[in-house]
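Review form for a predicted model. The reviewer records the input and the model, then writes brief findings.
Reviewer: anonymous (R2)
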Amino acid sequence: MIELKSLSNGVRVVLEELPYVRSIAFGIYVKNGSSNETEQEEGISHFIEHMVFKGTATRSSKQIAEDMDELGGQINAYTTKEYTCYHFRTLDKHFGRALDILSDMFLNSKFDEKDIQKERNVIIEEINMYDDDPEERVQDILQNIIWNGSSLAHPILGTEETISNFNSNKIKEYFKSHYRNDNTVISAVGNFKTEEMLEKLERVFGGWKTGRHDTIMPETPVYNSGFSSEEKDTEQLHLCITFPSFRRDHEMKYPYAVLNTVFGGGMSSMLFQKVREENGLSYTIYSFPTSYEKTGSFTIYTALNPSQAESVCTIVKECICDIKTGGISDTLLNKTKTQLISGFIIGNESTLSRMTSNGVSVLMLGYAKEQEETIKEAEKASAADVKFAAESIFNFDLISIAACGNTKEIDSEKLINIFRKNS
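Model under review:
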């Protein structure tokens, strides 16, 4: 059973006991990501995530790594557009020591100036690595189109220019104003007793006192349609075709998941079968949804020979029109729901997956659902719901296309008109 509690300082805690496992997955979630940054601060949330691993008053970065390795545990962190997570997974008997390591990092990081100088170079190399990968780069181009004018367009890694301006004082001030009791959630899943866990967390985190700050919160982003491309010396063209979609907790999220699976979510999907199997036009093609707190997008990605771009776009439009007008059969609906629910159940056998799901849900929505409740809601999705989701999402007047790689031979106006003509 999932239990939602609070520490004495207001930090929310979501706990799920699994007595049949031998491990504990533990995460600290802070509702702060790249969308909380100003243009001058782009990349600072991700920079802080790196710096938390660079040493405390009692541990060097090497000691942090060695102490965790000694336990045979796994420790990591990541930054998204809306939140940052620090997490570990370890055997239950090593939990106390692992908690001491991560809490020390989270509460007592030095943010030393020398370490900042070194890590700046590391992050610049990380930026260069992603810029060299056209599959990654086309996603950044896409974000700049569809969320232009919104903080959702901010690159998570920042830019070389912005991160060059970060120093110890700036990072400490940002951490102080954005890492707070009221926007932090602790999530734990595994072999423990809830009351004992709460006592441990109260001892470690209960003394963390922060004020409530009037930080600027992101406004509701406005989706923009358009086309943008970037030439790179590659053989292939990388394309993203995108539409506005649903927010994270939209009532249509389960029909939306069914739609994505049927349309482009796997090898049996419409896109894969039509584009690759029947016509041999692309090795890779798939769709994926992205949901945020207030908005979302639905994207089709493919990598192909530039000469095939118009043909692939024509087939993509045909698939969209088919599912908008004809919907899906009850047989396909039931098959897809079984596929999704099976994947959900299998995924939830991982303590890390459950910890992540619970932590993000409480952080972003204020609650976490039991597995059976989620399954029941997913089972309610009907063929009519899926058709409605397709009709709601696939508006050709709002299409956006991003291209990266071998763009010399493509005509952006032709690609856009394939979708908008007679739509």
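Findings: Residues 31 and 83 are 4 Å apart (CA to CA).
Further findings: The mean pLDDT is 94.
Recommendation: see findings above.
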